[in-house]
Amino acid sequence: MNKNIYTILFTCLMLLSVGHTFAGNPDRQGEAGASELLFNPWARSAGLHTLNTSSITGVESMRLNVAGLGRINSTELYAGSTSLYSGTGINLNALGYAQSVGSNGAFGVSLMAVDFGDITVRTEDQPGGTGASYSPSFFHMGLGYAYTYDNKISVGVLFRIISESTTDVSARGFALDAGIQYVTGERDEFKLGISLRNIGSPMKFSGEGLSFQGPAPGNEDVTLTINRRAEAFELPSVLNIGLSYDVYLMDDIYVRGLGNFTSNAFSLDQLGVGLELFFLEKFVLRGAYRTDLGTANDIATESIYSGLAGGVSLNIPIRRGSNQTIGIDYGYRATDPFNGTHNVAVRLSF
């Protein structure tokens, strides 16, 4: 009976996902806001161009497919730093915590902040700068939960709070993510994953920064404070469908091939493939290629990433023969223009 229920749930989610795939409107490309929801601060998945929907696990899964949250030993701590579009001075800082609950569940907390550096204040009267500076604050906090049935089917859901603000203008919102992973095979070599991300409330900016003082209509001797109304914007919802298969060369050495289709509601869809080479679970080498499907209407809707990504991970056991490890991860994604995006992260699993 339980297996039938799991199969029904899995089939229903697939049908809903397929329906969403064909629900996009290409005329709305580039119209979403909160694009930082699509940034990836985690090095392992970044080195695969965020294509590992089917195999992602632990803290990282809260950025791609929360269903993988529960596939950890017991506890995972993760800290990441990203040089976004190297040369722009924009950085991402992220911190995550995942903890198994009972025999099949897990919950997690993830935090991400965008560091834009100091931006010079410029006005109509002083276009060269006033001597002051400001730094926007973009911050996300996600709370996720995942449950695994018989080590075969994992389902998860995540609630994310979104905050964007400057000194006198701000916007707040929330988003929901949901995902599923299916694993089968004698050594769990085949994996299938589906995730739906960034489904939530429209956001709108408000604050004193949208106000200005000007003369009253018909009476220039009277000064009024006029407030501009900002237009609401939607979140960049995304559907990912991915699969992977492991080919064992030796007992502890194997190659994982993976593919992923991404349906973007507000930009071009994407298709990608990748490879990971695992040596004794202590050293992992990875690379991927992703391309846009279709043709962008103009340069503003083209992806800044030129297709190639790569990365490496080193997992060091804390004690000999122990599953407790310290991991060091690096990921690189080529961009055009700029000098690529670099991800570095440190992981503690115990």
Which sheet architecture does the biggest sheet show?
A: 14 strands, antiparallel, barrel
Work out the radius of gyration. 22 Å
Low-confidence stretches: 20-24
The CATH class label is: Mainly Beta
Please state the average pLDDT score: 87
Number of domains: 1
Give the overall shape.
elongated
Quickly give the CATH architecture. Beta Barrel
Whole-Å distance between the termini?
Answer: 35 Å
The topology string of helices and strands comes to HHEEEEEEEEEEEEEEEEEE
The CATH superfamily label reads monomeric porin ompg
Neighbour order of strands in the largest sheet: 1-2-3-6-7-8-9-12-13-14-15-16-17-18
CATH topology: Porin
Total strand count, please? 18
Would you tell me the structural class of the helices and strands?
mainly beta
β-strand percent reads over 45%
Task: State the helical fraction.
Answer: under 10%
Number of helices: 2
